[in-house]
Design the sequence.
């Protein structure tokens, strides 16, 4: 049977890059790109979907005989704190809609992203294990812990083949993050290539788990392509890339852009970050489906600076405009 993939939330930081990789792999005609907002790329088949509307998801699934769903839509950790009840409603309603549509239509596979935000003060912060105690302090984290358990419930009760990864902060040049606690690790590179001072909302020594976007995309596809019997964890898999603090990124940037300057002005996001792991134990992902990351901080810095320099030079972008997607 041909794979027909529906990506929900395709305009986001991960979605916009993952969608391209899926189109490459499965063919553009087999990937239905969807988001609540307008089409971002001109490539492929686009359907506007507000995932709080189950009928609309069903309509698109029926129209294209969808066999797999990647459900990426969510309100992230920092933005979520502005309106906790709305964040809970949106994050849970969209997931439950996807799970129900998947169950009713015998969808072959579902992907659900979780996050390092599931961890709270009850988990050890260094090499945090997959089965750590989960007591998140953000509504986003609470919704992801619940989502992981709902995913496992649909697997156990209905046999739905749903798979999940706990992403660390994702760093890439192609898209901007949308309201998370790890966003600084992308924004800082834009300011650096634009010769602007960066005001950082975390403290200089706040270390968080991070990952280059290509690693995140490869992990997702590797998990989804692994044989069903290899997937032993049906809540969500820890995956690690690199861990670094703002100070360490600055030092890497300054090796390449010596005049780069940063000011530290920690805000509420520092409190969120302080509760999260510093590093992640991803041995289960490695053992079950062969996960290994490729990019270290120095390589991430090289590729970010190179690509963003090209982008800002070639496109002659205004220094003020960093609301881009490449
Ligand atoms: N990058 C996300 C956030 O900061 C973590 O899932 O919210």
Sequence:
């Amino acid at each position: 049977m041909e794979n027909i993939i529906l990506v929900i939330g395709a305009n986001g930081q991960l979605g916009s890059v993952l969608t391209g990789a899926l189109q490459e792999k499965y063919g553009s005609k087999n990937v239905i790109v969807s988001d609540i907002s307008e089409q971002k790329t001109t490539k492929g088949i686009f359907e506007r979907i507000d995932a709080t509307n189950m009928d609309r998801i069903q309509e698109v699934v029926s129209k294209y005989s969808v066999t797999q769903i990647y459900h990426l839509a969510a309100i992230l950790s920092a933005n979520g704190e502005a309106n906790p009840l709305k964040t809970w409603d949106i994050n849970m309603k969209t997931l439950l809609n996807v799970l129900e549509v998947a169950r009713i239509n015998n969808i072959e596979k579902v992907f659900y992203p979780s996050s390092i935000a599931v961890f709270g003060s009850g988990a050890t912060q260094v090499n945090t294990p997959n089965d750590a105690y989960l007591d998140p302090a953000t509504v986003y984290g609470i919704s992801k812990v619940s989502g992981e358990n709902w995913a496992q419930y649909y697997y156990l009760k209905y046999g739905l083949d749903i798979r999940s990864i706990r992403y660390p902060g994702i760093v890439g040049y192609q898209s901007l993050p949308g309201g998370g606690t790890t966003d600084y690790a992308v924004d800082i590179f834009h300011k650096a290539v634009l010769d602007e001072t960066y005001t950082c909302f975390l403290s200089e020594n706040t270390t968080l788990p991070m990952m280059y976007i290509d690693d995140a995309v490869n992990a997702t596809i590797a998990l989804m392509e692994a044989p069903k019997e290899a997937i032993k964890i049906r809540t969500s898999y820890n995956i690690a890339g690199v861990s670094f603090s703002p100070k360490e990124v600055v030092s890497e940037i300054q090796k390449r852009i010596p005049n780069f300057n940063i000011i530290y002005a920690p805000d509420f996001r520092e409190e969120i970050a302080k509760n999260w792991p510093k590093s992640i134990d991803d041995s289960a992902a490695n053992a079950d489906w062969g996960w290994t990351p490729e990019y270290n901080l120095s390589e991430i810095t090289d590729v970010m600076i190179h690509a963003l320099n090209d982008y800002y030079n070639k496109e002659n972008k205004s220094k003020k405009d960093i609301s881009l997607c490449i």
Summary: The pocket of serine is lined by residues 76-77, 115-117, 140, 167, 169, 180-182 (CB under 6 Å). The radius of gyration is 19 Å. The longest strand covers residues 109-115.
